Amino acid sequence: DEASTRGNLKIVSSDGSFEGSVGGRIHFDAYAFDNDLTDSTSTSEFRRARITLKGKLYNWGYVFENDFAGQSGTTGTGFRDMNIYTKVGPGKLTIGQFKPYRSMEEITSSNDILMMERPYASATGIYNGRQFQQGVGYLISDDQYTLGVAGFNTKSAGDNRNEGLGGSARATFAPIMQDNMVVHMGASYSVENANSMTTAFEAEADYVGRRGPSETIALTTDGESVNTVGLEAAISAGPVFAQAEYAIADFGNATGDDEEVQTYYIQGAYTLTGQMKPYKSSKGVFTTAKGNNIVQLTARYDYIENKDVTDLEAETTSVGVNYYLNPAMRFMLNYVMGENTLTGDESNQVALRAQMAF
Amino acid sequence: DEASTRGNLKIVSSDGSFEGSVGGRIHFDAYAFDNDLTDSTSTSEFRRARITLKGKLYNWGYVFENDFAGQSGTTGTGFRDMNIYTKVGPGKLTIGQFKPYRSMEEITSSNDILMMERPYASATGIYNGRQFQQGVGYLISDDQYTLGVAGFNTKSAGDNRNEGLGGSARATFAPIMQDNMVVHMGASYSVENANSMTTAFEAEADYVGRRGPSETIALTTDGESVNTVGLEAAISAGPVFAQAEYAIADFGNATGDDEEVQTYYIQGAYTLTGQMKPYKSSKGVFTTAKGNNIVQLTARYDYIENKDVTDLEAETTSVGVNYYLNPAMRFMLNYVMGENTLTGDESNQVALRAQMAF
Amino acid sequence: DEASTRGNLKIVSSDGSFEGSVGGRIHFDAYAFDNDLTDSTSTSEFRRARITLKGKLYNWGYVFENDFAGQSGTTGTGFRDMNIYTKVGPGKLTIGQFKPYRSMEEITSSNDILMMERPYASATGIYNGRQFQQGVGYLISDDQYTLGVAGFNTKSAGDNRNEGLGGSARATFAPIMQDNMVVHMGASYSVENANSMTTAFEAEADYVGRRGPSETIALTTDGESVNTVGLEAAISAGPVFAQAEYAIADFGNATGDDEEVQTYYIQGAYTLTGQMKPYKSSKGVFTTAKGNNIVQLTARYDYIENKDVTDLEAETTSVGVNYYLNPAMRFMLNYVMGENTLTGDESNQVALRAQMAF
User: Fold this and answer.
1) Residues near A76 by Cβ (< 8 Å), separated by ≥ 6?
2) Phi, psi for C69 (deg, rounded to 5)
3) Following DSSP, what letter does each residue of A187-222 receive, concatenated?
4) Chain C: residue nearest A12 by CA?
5) Chain C interface includes B197 (CB < 8 A)
6) N vs C: which end of chain C shows fewer Cβ within 10 Å?
7) Superfamily of chain region A83-331
């Protein structure tokens, strides 16, 4: 059988029907805060330290990924993609833990995200902590469209056992797909029905970046559900890239009125060295141009609010530079300006990342 | 050197004297309870998520296995086989953490066990939580017999440090070993001497399957010991398979009388597609026929009681179907009917597993 | 690409520019105490159980090492070397978590250390728990000298986030480097400036070996700093080896006077089978002769004291035997005699290790 390496280890059987690989990623960060009303601690931190085993056997595949930097004392907290999959009909059937199909930037790999942290329209905000769920997914994709549906237990490996059930669906379409321009549009719907044992669903705003202050935007009470609609649009045209998402969620409240959470962001990049951000048709997201010494300027405006509670809103404006040293490494610099309307806090953060994926 | 894969990664040196491999297993379960007097939470769960490193060097071998799905905040709780071994005289010497030689179904790999959970005559019941121990083992095996002895600290990697000492011995014999029929008989003896720092030895009955209610059948008090005798018998004849174990244990009590725990089970399978369950002579257990689309009906009756406490007994009747999709994957469906005589609880469980070993 | 194994897995690309490997180590110990005034529990224990991923890509390298035997419920406690590195100018630039350049025996790999535990002049004592730090390092080395400097956050991956900053520098020189004799000299300086969130810096004496009693020799109070000077000397001449270190540290005290901690040790070995301990020029430490059936007698006298607190001192005298069965395995036997002057405790320990590195 054939062995190969690009820093990782990979073996493919002579007939190509079996495959095994060991890879991983290291994201090493430093954060410095310019505190206003809140008091955040500047520090260094491994943002991600993952070992990823992948393989193929008898027309099935598996992904076994543990994030050692995200693993606390609770069993399973380090699990990321942990699933088996196969082709069924026109699509890909996944069983185990995976990201439900919703939120474009959430589905974008952490190796490829534009800014150091994902926007509020992801599991960093409106789907707080609900990045990976356990269940069954089905994804059909073609050059220009994807359609993914997922049914899941409202539990990731690190959560309490519970009987909550959820579902999500995401459809994307790329009406323009040319060598020098790709336009992407998408929509998703997510429903999460808690059970009394389910940890409350939350929308949260870490409005000054990682390890900064956070504000709870909404929280379901005992056994209530959350319904979320999301819209996506993006364009990659030569060195220019722009992406926006809008999401609105209804957070159930057992005793009072439901609360509506709204979030949107627009982020963009200009690649000084000219490369175009490529499109990954199989997932309906944008990925990263591979090369040496690519320099990219980035910016994002991100907003979230609880429409039913006065002043319960936060916004974050970020600017940054990405430096792609080689196809496996990236250095990121972000300047994050946060604002919490409720408290009036306007703290800022400078964040730095050294990233290697192998 | 020669690289190969069947979904895993393996490299063997040209002269065969060195070897290294990375493999693993994913067991993904869903449990639904029909609760009677107890209140169990239905859920999905990774039953096992293991990375297994194995190798050979200078006539020694090692196994380094961590179960990420069994790893809590306590150091070492994820360790499974974690040992080095070599051939000494006629047998295999093992140093480190391994399963002491006792209980046939315990020694059977979780990839091969007949039902989703092991019976009471294993570390699931009478040897509760004492699946792996740290020490030294020696195992002699031939085509038709095995003899294993182990001496150990009464500590697995995740337990408190303690000075307790234990020993076990297991002898098996296969009087009939033909192409279409194997008959197995075995006996084991285990002694576990606690020390004041040793966590109390327990016999426990999870009588409605995994994550259902549990009843403590016996518990040693400070520094007391447990002595257990086990008997085994099994037959594999064409598509028919049956296996039974009996174990009786004396749980020491510092202030009162010792308590005697008795357990037995009989389990069987009928493979609709005709394959015979093969015998693994080196360990004295039955394993799994390798193939595609093998369908097997299974059943077990399992009983445990404390003979010295009135009504402290539990029984579990399980029926199931195993579907072996390919040599690396299995889907399991179990229906588990439990009864706790002490409380009168008669809850049931439907359990489902998707299993891949690579 | 080319696959190879010596018990591990390694793949190197045909042109040598890419490389990936999976290896590890298992150190399995047993401790028996002869308790005097303190009451330590004899036990078996995995001292180390590490998986180590290493690789090279685009002129960079990475090390991803997790010690499963050192990993508690706190995120990152298992991280050891977790960094990326490259050649910059004449030296090696390291980013991430690594051992700051200070203390010769600390920098010596645990696979190569002379006795089972490191002396007080390491992170086992005067740099207690501060073995790995997060930051940036730069190391220049030639055949006969090394010069390493490190700047770091006073945080290893398992510590609290904090804004403490530290730096260290170590210079070594080997004035004699002949086939049958190497003489090594070195000096290091370390400064650690705590911040209010930094866990207090401590000097500790585990004076009866691992899992025995321990005495706090010094402890900084809120936000104070530690400054340490270290001196090293060693000689390897045929079968004879001797190594000594001296370190003196100033532990800051916010309210009272600073406290001065002094420690030194001398350790030696005589290799009955004649092999000379080789020198590792790239790191400025001694390593292990590779071969079969090497037998080595070892001894160490180790002392630590707080010069500003009467009788706050401890000493440990150890003797031992190392048996190198083959290039990958070692068995160690240590007899450790400890003395705590403050309490008068004079407990002893017998310790045994089975070690495999692959």
Assistant:
1) A156, A157, A158, B46, B49, B68, B69
2) -85, -5
3) EEEEEEE--TTSPPPEEEE-BTBTTS--EEEEE--T
4) C1
5) yes
6) N
7) Porin (2.40.160.10)
Class of domain C2-357: mainly beta
Interface test with A, best of C8, C15, C57 (most A CBs within 10 A): C57
Q: A152 near A167, Cβ under 8 Å?
A: yes
C-alpha A149: how far from its chain's center? 17
Q: Which residues in chain C are contacts of B11 at CB distance < 8 A?
A: 3-5, 9-11
Q: Please state the domain extents for chain C.
A: 2-357
Q: Name chain A contacts of C1, Cβ cutoff 8 Å.
A: 2-5
B68/A72 CB distance under 8 A: no
User: Which chain C residue has its CA at the smallest distance from A46's CA?
Assistant: C157
How many beta-carbon pairs below 8 A join chains B and C? 128
Rounded Cα distance between B143 and A328, Å, is: 51
DSSP string, B238-279: TTEEEEEEEEEEEE--SSS--EEEEEEEEEEEEETT-PPPPE
Topology of the domain covering B18-357: Porin (2.40.160)
Instruction: Give residue B237's pLDDT band: very low, low, confident or very high (50, 70, 90).
Output: very high
Q: Which two tokens stand for residue A222?
A: 């005992």
* R_g of chain B computed on alpha carbons: 20
Question: What gap in Å lies between CA A199 and CA A218, rounded to an integer?
Answer: 13
User: pLDDT band at B256, cuts 50/70/90?
Assistant: confident
pLDDT at residue B221, rounded to an integer: 83
Q: Which residues of A touch B42 (CB under 8 A)?
A: 163
Segment holding C105, helix H or strand E: helix C104-107
Q: How far is CA C260 from CA B174, C85, C102, in A?
A: 70, 35, 18
> With a CB-CB cutoff of 8 Å, which residues 91-150 of chain C face chain A?
95-97, 134-135
Separation of first and last alpha carbons in chain C = 21
Tell me the nearest-neighbour CA distance from C67 into chain A, angstroms.
11
Q: How far apart are CA B252 and CA B193, in angstroms?
A: 9
Q: What is the pLDDT of residues C169-213, one digit of tens each?
A: 999 999 999 999 999 999 999 999 998 889 999 999 999 999 999
How far apart are the C-alpha atoms of C228 and C169, rounded to whole Å? 11
CA distances, A15 to each of A5, B11, C2 (Å): 19, 18, 19
Q: In angstroms, what is the C-alpha Rg of chain C? A: 20
**Tokens coding A266:** 């627009």
CB contact under 8 A, B49 and A19: no
Backbone angles phi, psi at C236, to 5 degrees: -125, 120
Q: Is some CB atom of chain C closer than 8 A to the CB atom of B68?
A: no
State the alpha helices, DSSP H only, in A81-120.
104-107
Q: State the number of CA atoms in the 13 A half-sphere of B101 facing the CB.
A: 28
pLDDT tens per residue across span A298-314: 999 999 999 999 999 99
